[in-house]
Amino acid sequence: MKMTKLIGIAALLFLVQYDLLSQEGMKLAYDVPAKKWTEALPIGNGNLGAMVYGGVEQEHIQFNEETLWRGQPHDYSNKGAGNYLAEIRQLLTDGKQREAQDLATKEFMSEPLKQIHYQPFGDIHINFDGHEKYSNYSRTLDIENAISNVSYKVNDVAFEREVFSSFPDKVMVVHLTSSKSKALSFKIWLDAIHEDKQLKTSGKSQTLEVKIKDGVLKGVSTIKVDTDGIVEVEDGKLKIVDASKATIYMSAATNYINFKDVSGNPYQQVSETLKGIESKKFGKIKKRHIKDYQSLYNRFQLDFGDNGKSKVTTNKRIYDFWKDPNDPQLIALYVQYARYLMIASSRPGSKPPTLQGLWNDKIKPPWFSSYTTNINLEMNYWPVEVTNLSECHEPLFDFIEDISKTGSIVAKEHYNAEGWIVHHNVDIWRGAAPVNASNHGIWLSGGAWLCSHIWEHYLFTKDKEFLKENYPLMRDAALFYSQFLYKDPNTGYLISSPSNSPEIGGLVAGPTMDHQIIRALFKTIVEASAILETDHDFSEKLKTILPQIAPNKIGKHGQLQEWMEDRDDPENHHRHVSHLWAVYPGKGINYEETPELMKAAKQSLEYRGDNGTGWSLAWKINFWSRFKDGNRAYKLLNILLSPAEVPERKIRGGSYPNLFDAHPPFQIDGNFGGASGIVEMLLQSHLDKIELLPALPDALADGTVSGVCARGGFELSFTWKNSVLQEVEVLSKSGENCTLVYNNKMVEFNTKPGKKYKFDGFLNKQK
Ligand code: FUC
User: Fold this and answer.
1) CATH for 27-69+117-298, among 3.40.605.10, 1.10.3720.10, 3.40.390.30, 2.70.98.50?
2) pLDDT digits (tens, 9 = 90+) for 38-58
3) What residue ranges carry the coiled-coil annotation (predicted)?
4) Can you tell me which atom of ligand 1 is nearest the CA of 667?
5) CB 355 less than 6 A from any atom of ligand 1
6) Is 613 in the pocket of ligand 1 (CB under 6 A)?
């Protein structure tokens, strides 16, 4: 009898948990239309993205297609640069940094020196005459369904708008309805801020063609209206009258095929895409969109509870969070929003998200809206494996493959080496040579860092086929470094020279970061070649090189040295914290194997301070989580989730009203890095075991997470209350041995693929 009662209570608790997990309120919500771009709401299908303003009389939807850039196929390498490598190194060895930098500026940089910009594509404008007086306005981004909604009333008629970008059907969709028949009338047209543009309007569709200044790319986009009303053409615009519903489908394409080929036919692509949906009704397209989106989104759920603030508009929540960081649902929303942005900007077959993701409205966007590899591009992908979006990692692997080709030319021309290398910036033409200026452009660990993503994907999925397929990319990167590393005449160690510690201290010999990353790559090759039973000799060679690489060192301030020399300035609050790479995302410095270095790394982070640009704050959240200081990590989260545009705050970094990360200006990396830092508070698996709640902040004392992934091919669900673990379930996907750790308790067990294992809060096995 008693037993049945207990089971009943357990079932009830289970249901309560599931109620908690239903994720109501996973929405960004506003009670006014967007005035600025950073108030508008992003949608995307990996390739076609837009920002929806939600205006009442005038709707504005600014859109992008990811392959519209300036420039043309171009190899940025500088033929003969390698002839100066030895001299630059010698000048650095002799302490003549200025001369080394000058010579490198003159002879070693890419041709041309600068890369090119990602471009906005166009704008959809919709005018609704007579809607100037309205009530009941609401604007949301529903991130459970990936739909942006607008609703309001004019007199007694309710108007609704849904906007989404469909991955399965490759179109953007705007669906408009009125509650009263024939009450919906509007004008719709395309436009663009490009000088060279043309419009053609006929029947129920309009086509925009844009040609990019300073480049060979052109873009074509078509809107097509499906409505129960009447469609006319007036003043070059489509005019819809007497409708109760209307759906606008939009397709866009360019002539870009790949970084060497621009022979595509965008007219044909656009018309084929629109033909593909001709026989489908809006309802079906919406259903397919939601199903596709949720097949990724629903895999991971996170609940920290809801103290009622989820009912407040998102812009106000951000403001309130600054003053009182007590809004646990906002933290869960932040993580899910990052996953939403990832699904919207990185799908198989698409390009990786740029510095601004898929979204850019400027002809000259900040930092070209390209790919910066000395932190930003990699940070974009930090949450992807752990939050169960493994497939979204694919565009980065395609990117690595491209860059290994251009990078092999650079390896040869600049370093007389085999293999491949990429420096700190890459554009759509896959430039791999050092750009901009020698003091920060010549940075050497880009290739190795990118390769760590291949390895991480393998560790999370245990997909041996994937490893086999991508191993040559990692091996060729390692081959480059095995030939590039240089025996420092001053210390006898192998060092990376010339290079820099990202954006601090100029061109130098032997920045700590490079050595950490190169060491990690070599260790990966040793492990991967053993798993794949290949490349024995190369692996043996790397084993002999590894101990010769300059080690991490502790300096006179108790800090981890950023350079070979003990010259760190404790007053330097620079945004980059590159020498802590081995703490996160690397694992070479950790409490178990290298406690002294961990202490020094923590000291370095203390010196750097708590402020920073958006991505810098996000990185620090991950660091403090690895240092197992959840409350400190939460303090950084408080800064990241505070309003970016309140002058009296006097702090850079924060969030815009649409929850986009502010560098400032907008840069998407902080959204992704912030999300990964939050998950890192709950679970860490970098040391061959799964540690639960390793850095739980007091502010997140109660919660449930499900579908969170760990290295070794595991998926976990667990619950905690009053900061104490209650129960855990582990799904083994590949049958590896599993080690769980919580609060100084450890349990090890064998697993079978597809089986689940349950434990109570003391890690006692449950049936
Ligand atoms: C690096 C950073 C900047 C910015 C830029 C895109 O150069 O130092 O802060 O994020 O990338």
Assistant:
1) 2.70.98.50
2) 999 999 999 999 999 999 999
3) none
4) 10
5) yes
6) yes
